[in-house]
Amino acid sequence: MIEIGRAKRATQVYSFDDIAIVPTRRTRSPQDVKLTWSIDALTFEFPIVAAPMDSVMSPDTAIAFGRMGGLGVLNLEGLWTRYDDPDPILAELAEISDAVAATARMQELYSEPVKPELIAERMKQIRDAGVPVAGALSPQRAQEFASVVERAGVDFFVIRGTTVSAEHVSSAQEPLNLKEFIRKLDVPVIVGGCATYQAALHLMRTGAAGVLVGFGGAATGRTRHVLGVEVPMASAVADVAAARRDYMDESGGRYVHVIADGALGRSGDIAKAIACGADACMVSTPLARAEEAPGRGWHWGPEAWHPELPRGERVRMGRVGTLEEIVRGPSHTPDGTMNLVGALGKAMGTTGYTEVKEFQRVEIVVHA
Fold it and tell me: How far apart are CA 220 and CA 276, in angstroms?
């Protein structure tokens, strides 16, 4: 513990930029590295989940990502479930260069009600393409649309917020009882974010199949500036991984997947997240740079259009290549923004590991 002053002590924590992965005495050929990730009854070719953000995932990009072997999650409170055809709206947003004007326009556009029939239609579109289906709702609206999502035949129900608690207390409305909610669903639930050992342990006890670590959308989020709330991701992932270990002992062997969500702008960050104990990574920023990304070179999260207190902003990302090149390569940039899958395999091979679970045990060091 570090003494901040006489009345306050604090824990030293670390971001992904603060740490590095240590090679071992053994190396492996990247061709021998197995990147598959299995959660519930499904197995994916690599441990990367596409984040439910309107600038990243449309039904079409979710399908494309699924065909590559990953899991794409659609935001069920986004433009795709508010408008029959959001393409003209996305094109309009791409033409607004002023940040304040963009925020104001997004607040207007996202005030359109979510339509249950569009939730069903978008999920059906993805399911009919023959890829796994996942949709995300905020804790505030999960109960409202749960039956629609479940009837749509999703493979995963994602509950994603800035901070999701198993013990939310509200005098204004009846809070979502996560444990009861998850128990009644016939589909596995991934829930988050959280950033501490205790919060993660409580979420795991609700019956969730996976827990999201972090606040998500770090490149676009301004929660740390607006609210002063943040836990650097390397420490957050390691703490939640410890909660997973202890929950396994407590529950008699039930395994809950730890999914890093935030501060994953480059392939090296993905490798570091898994080295800290993550089973998979929910990625947004690199995918927002794809030619096919619906944001058209811009990136934003749900915090950006909050009607009363925006805690995010729309960020110019540009376009660096196709979705295929960003996910699987080939890369034509040396900055870790392309060929995410190949880079993870190379990191594992360089340090002598052939399985993702084994790679969680790799040694890491802290920069001086």
Answer: 23
CA 295-300-304 angle, 5° bins: 135
What CA–CA distance (Å, rounded) separates 85 from 152? 20
Residue range 122-128: mean pLDDT, rounded: 98
Q: What pLDDT, on a 0 to 100 scale, did the predictor assign at position 261?
A: 96
153-167, 182-196, 304-318, 328-342: least confident range: 153-167
Which positions ≥6 away from 241 have C-beta within 8 Å? 258, 276, 277, 278, 360
The helix/strand/coil state of 271 is helix
pTM, two decimals, is 0.95
Position 172 scores a pLDDT of: 52
- Inter-CA distances, 64 with 115, 128, 204, 249, Å: 24, 13, 31, 38
Would strands 8-10 and 2-5 be described as parallel, antiparallel, or unpaired? antiparallel
Mean pLDDT of the chain: 93
One DSSP character per residue, 172-222 reads: SSPPP-HHHHHHH-SS-EEEEEE-SHHHHHHHHTTT-SEEEES-S-TTTB-
Q: What is the pLDDT of residues 220-230, one digit of tens each?
A: 666 677 777 88
Q: Distance (Å, rounded) from C-alpha 192 to C-alpha 260?
A: 10
Amino acid at 176: L
Backbone angles phi, psi at 121, to 5 degrees: -65, -45
Cβ-Cβ contacts under 8 Å for 55 (sequence gap 6 or more): 284, 288, 293, 294, 295, 298, 299, 300, 301, 314
pLDDT, residue 169, reads 44
What pLDDT, in 10s, does the model give residues 207-217?
Answer: 999 999 997 54
- Domains of the chain (ranges, CATH numbers): 44-168+175-347 (3.20.20.70)
| Residue 308 confidence (pLDDT) above 90 | no
Instruction: Return the SS3 of 5.
Output: strand
CA separation, residue 110 to residues 113, 129, 304 (Å): 8, 27, 10
What is the C-alpha to C-alpha distance for residues 149 and 310, in angstroms, rounded to an integer? 27
Tokens 């993660």 -> residue:
200
Structure confidence by residue, pLDDT tens digits, 145-158: 999 999 999 999 99
